[in-house]
Specification:
Number of strands: 2
Helix content: 55-70%
Structural class: mainly alpha
Number of domains: 2
CATH topology of the largest domain: Arc Repressor Mutant, subunit A
CATH class of the largest domain: Mainly Alpha
Shape: elongated
CATH architecture of the largest domain: Orthogonal Bundle
Amino acid sequence: MAGEQSKTAKKFSRRESEVMDVLFKKEEATARDVWTALGESRTYSTVRKLLSILEEKGHVTHRMEGGAFVYSPKIGREAAATSALGRLVDTFFHGSVAGAVSSLLGEKGDKMSSEELDRIAKLIEDAKQK
């Protein structure tokens, strides 16, 4: 099932990702809640259509509450984030994790705490052990 979630998470369009981000933050929301959270930058009918598409793809589910659909994500934020990060690495770094990490460290390295850098070093050591 986890592999299945990762495969489906790869199918988010930019607009679908925006809607999913709202659902991840709120945990559940009506179409109007999502529309408002997006700053009304999309039409209400577009938000409803996006929620319908996301439900058809298996990313969200809904329940009825007082005559309104209340949507919630079916996949976890972590699964979606892992998939999105994988796409980013593939797209901008030709699949090179080292290239992505190098870019992040070059951009943010001087702003990272010792604890964050130690955690990264531990993750690298753990990966070497595997």
